[in-house]
Amino acid sequence: MFPDRSLSRLLSLAVLLVSAATALADTEMVMLRDGVSGMAEVLSTTEDSVTVKFETKDGTAGETVFSASRLDEHSFYSLRSKYMEKTVPNHVKLAVFCAENGMFKRAKYQMDQARRLDPEIDDKLEARPDIMAGIAERLAEGVKRAYDKGDLQTAYEIAELITTRFSETPLAEKAYEALDRLEKEMADGEAAETAAREEAITAAADDATRAAAGARNNVLVAIEKRQAAGRGKNSKGLRTNNRSTAKRLFEGAAGDFQSALGATRAARKRAGDDAELIAMLDDVEGELKSEAVNAWINAGNIELWRDNFNGARKAGETARAIDPDSAAARSFLNKVDLARASSGNDWERGGRPTPRPPRRR
Question: What is the pTM for the complete model shown?
C-alpha cells in the first residue's frame, strides 16, 4: 500500500501522462507545482480550480479537478485567463492570484482589463472595506511566501503595495512593520556583500587581482550609497502624513535612483571584459529601474489624489521613460486616463476622488 503522498503523485502522473497519438487538438498543457505535466482537455475553470478531461496511455478516460494551489502558478494563470468568462470580478480575482504569486505584470494586466470593463472599479473596491481587507490579507500571504523564499525585494514590493493601495485596511499597519523589517534585512544583506567584497580584496593572491577587486568594490559602493539614499527617502515618504512632503521625498528618491542608474550604466561601459562586475551591475540596474519607476508612481499617486491629472501623467511618463517595458508605469498611465475621463473636467482640478496617497496612521 502506497503512502498517501506517493499515491497522490502516481494518480497525478496517470492523469497527466497523455498519449500524443490520442491527444485532441484542443488539449492544453497542464503542469503541477512539482513539475509533473501533460496534455488534457480543459472542461471548465473557477477562480481556484481547473477541471480537465484526460486519457492515459492505456486508454483510460476520466475527469478530475485540480485546485489552483496544486497547479503551477503560470499554468493556472494560462488556463484561467483563457477559459474564464471575461467579467470584472474574474479579472480582479485573477489579478489578486497573480499578485500573491509574484506575477506583477500579469496582475497589472488583469486589473487593466477590469478597468476597461468598469472604469469605476477602483472606487467600488475602495467603497467595500470587506473586499479591500480580503485582498490585503491575501497580498500579506504573498509577502510571507516571498520572504520565506528569500526574495526580499518582491516581499518589499508587495508590502509597499498594501501601504499605498490598501492603507485603510487593518493590515496596513502590519505592512509598515514588514517594511521596517525588510529594509533592515536588505541593508544588512548589502553590508554583508560589501564585507565579502572587501574580504576578497584582502585575500587576493597578487597585486593585480587585489587592484581589480578593489576597483570593483569602489564602483559598487558608490552606486549602492546612492541607492540607499533613495530607499531612505522613499521609506520616509511612505510614512509621512504630509502629502507635499511625501511627494518631495518620492521625487528625491527617484532622483537618487536615477543618478545611481546613470552611474551603473556608465560603469558597465567601462567594465570591459570583467564578467563578474558586469553581472553585478546588471543585477543592480534591474533593481534601480524598478525602484525609480515605483518612486515616480508614488509621487504620481499624490497628484492623482489632488486631481492634478497633468502632474500625475508627467510622473507616469517619467516612469515609463526610465523603463519603457514597465507594466507598472503603463498601468499607472491607464489609471490616470481613466480618472481624467471620469472626472468630467478634462484635466482640470476637481471631479471624483482618486486613490489615496501613502499614509501612516
Answer: 0.53
